[in-house]
Design goal:
heterodimer, A: 98 residues, alpha+beta, Arc Repressor Mutant, subunit A, three-stranded antiparallel beta sheet, 3 strands, B: 199 residues, mainly alpha, 84% helix
């Protein structure tokens, strides 16, 4: 019997998975947009985004626009690859479960 | 966790991903106001030219509308995440706008616009092209109707009198810029309210 794949624990968290999936559809996104789409609190969202950043899955850029601070997130190539692998693993697991 | 609960958990995650990817790809930008703005700009340029300043009316009004559009998109409310789709749509309009600006200025200053119907036909056809390209990109039938109206105005300009060509051009501006722009603004505001409710 073939060995079942492990799911990447960094991506497996629901909010982190939602964030990576959102970022997969756009080129870059502001913190406020991600907060609106996920309905998460500032603290939780910031913590999960930091985990993704530490894993190299998202890149952060901080800048000032019209004197207001803005934090922009974009998915890295490593993040995209990890998400693809996660989807493959998920499909394999679901295939095995059926 | 038993096997059924685990499977349900995995399926939930798959659904979550699909929902979020679709959410990210949803049309992000607000374009309706640009249609209305450019519709008003076309009318302003047309009536200014009609009052006698044919050489400068169109270039000055188009430059002013271009500046106002850039200012509008730089406003914080309009800064939504950039998507490939959004960039494609913006590219279609920018490329068509620049082409028209260069062509009509060159024709005007080169004194090749003695028959205004040539201008109406070419302008209508090019705006129709931009609308059609956007509608095919977005798979949005309503915008394709605008393209058809513009193309009809282009054909009318080629075969009918100047008065009829003017009437067709002004009607196309009203239907495809003002009315369609207002319709888009209503749709966009409805979509914003939905997003706010889900947030």
């Amino acid at each position: 019997m073939p060995e079942l794949p492990e799911l990447n624990p960094v991506i497996h968290g629901k909010l982190r998975l939602a964030l990576l999936s959102l970022l997969a559809g756009v080129e870059e996104a502001e913190f406020t947009w991600l907060r609106a789409k996920t309905g998460s609190t500032d603290g939780n969202l910031g913590a999960q985004l930091m985990k993704l950043e530490e894993s190299g899955y998202v890149a952060v850029e901080k800048k000032f626009v019209q004197r207001k601070p803005q934090t922009i997130y974009r998915m890295t190539d490593a993040g995209r690859e990890a998400l693809q692998e996660y989807v493959q693993a998920l499909k394999q697991l679901l295939g095995a479960a059926i | 966790m038993n096997a059924d609960a685990e499977e349900m958990d995995l399926r939930e995650r798959l659904d979550l991903m699909q929902k979020m990817i679709a959410e990210g790809r949803r049309k992000q930008e607000s374009w309706g106001w640009t249609f209305v703005l450019w519709g008003i700009a076309y009318y302003a340029a047309f009536f200014w030219a009609w009052l006698g300043n044919f050489v400068y009316a169109w270039p000055i009004t188009m430059i002013a509308a271009g500046i106002l559009t850039s200012i509008g998109f730089a406003r914080p409310r309009h800064r939504s995440p950039e998507t490939t789709m959004g960039r494609a749509i913006a590219s279609i309009w920018i490329a068509s706008g620049v082409s028209m600006f260069i062509l009509f200025d060159a024709m005007g200053f080169g004194l090749h616009l003695s028959d205004a119907r040539v201008f109406f036909a070419a302008a209508s056809a090019m705006i129709g092209l931009a609308n059609a390209a956007c509608s095919l990109t977005l798979r949005w039938k309503a915008e394709f109707l605008c393209a058809i109206v513009w193309w009809a105005a282009a054909v009318i300009a080629c075969f009918c009198s100047q008065v009829t060509a003017v009437a067709a051009f002004l009607t196309a501006i009203f239907l495809c810029q003002i009315v369609f722009g207002a319709y888009m603004m209503v749709l966009e505001s409805r979509q914003r309210r939905q997003v706010a409710r889900h947030a």
